[in-house]
Amino acid sequence: MLKNLKEHRDFLSVTVIFLLAFIFFLKGFLQNQIIWGFDTPKIIFPLIFLLDESFKYLQLPLWTPDIYFGFPVGGDGQIPWYYLASILHIFLPLNLVLLPLSFIHVALAGIFTYLFCRIIKLSRFASLFAAIAFMFNGFIISHMQYFTHLYGYIYLPLVLFFIEFAIQKNRNIFFALAGIGMGFQLLSGHPNIPVMTFIYVVTYTF
C-alpha cells in the first residue's frame, strides 16, 4: 500500500498543480469572464477579436488597411496567428477560447516546471513548490492579458527539461525535442520570449 502511494506521488503533485490553476480561474469560469487589463481594450482585445473572426472564415489576413495607412498584423507580436492552439478559434466563441487556453497554459507551466525539477533530482515537495512559484510568478500574472506572452513563456521549463534529459542520457533526440519546444514559443507570437529563452538555455547548457 505504501509502495503504491509512493509511486503515485508524482501524479498527486500534478493533480495539485492542475487544481490550483483551476481554482485561480474559477471565478472567470463561473462568471463567463476573460482576463482584462490596462492594454486589453486598446490593443489586445481588438487584435484577438480580429484573429477570432478571421479564423472563423478560414482567413489569414497578414495585412490590414484599417490601421494608419496599413499595418502588418501578421507580424504583430500580440496575436498568436501561427500558434497551434489558436485553431480553437475556428470552432468556439471567443470567450470560450481565451479563458480555457489561459487556464491550460498556466497549469502546463506548473507541470513542465515540476518535470524539470524532478529530473534534476529535487524532492517531490521542492519540485511542487517550484512549480507553484513558477506558474504564479510575477511575470505570468502581470502579463496574463498578453496571451502571446503566456503561451510562449510556459515552454521555458519544458525546453530545460529536454536539455537536461539530453545531457543526462547523451541522446541528441532530446535536443531536437527542446528545439520543438522553442518552435512552439516562436509560433506563439511575441519575439521577446523565445529570445530570452534562447539566451537562458545557452547559458544553462554551457
Keywords:
0% strand, globular, mainly alpha, 206 residues, 70% helix, disordered N terminus
Description:
- There is one protein chain.
- This protein has 206 residues and is an all-alpha fold.
- 70% of the residues lie in helices and 0% in strands.
- It has eleven helices and no strands.
- The protein has helices at 2-7, 9-31, 40-56, 88-91, 95-119, 124-135, 138-142, 147-153, 156-169, 172-188, 192-205.
- Helix 2 (9-31) packs parallel to helix 6 and helix 9 (156-169) packs antiparallel against helix 10 (172-188).
- The radius of gyration is 19 Å and the shape is globular.
- The N and C termini lie far apart (43 Å).
- Mean pLDDT is 86; it is low at 1-5.
Going by helix content, strand content and strand pairing, the class is mainly alpha
Query: Mind describing the biggest β-sheet?
Result: none
Number of helices: 11
* Proportion of residues in β-strands: under 5%
Order of secondary-structure elements:
HHHHHHHHHHH
Query: Which regions are unreliable across 5 or more consecutive residues at pLDDT < 50?
Result: 1-5
What overall geometry do the principal axes of the alpha carbons give?
globular
Structure at a glance:
The chain has 206 residues and is mainly alpha-helical.
Reconstruct the topology from this structure:
Elements: H1 2-7, H2 9-31, H3 40-56, H4 88-91, H5 95-119, H6 124-135, H7 138-142, H8 147-153, H9 156-169, H10 172-188, H11 192-205
Helix pairs in contact: 2-5, 2-6, 5-6, 5-8, 5-9, 8-10, 9-10, 9-11, 10-11
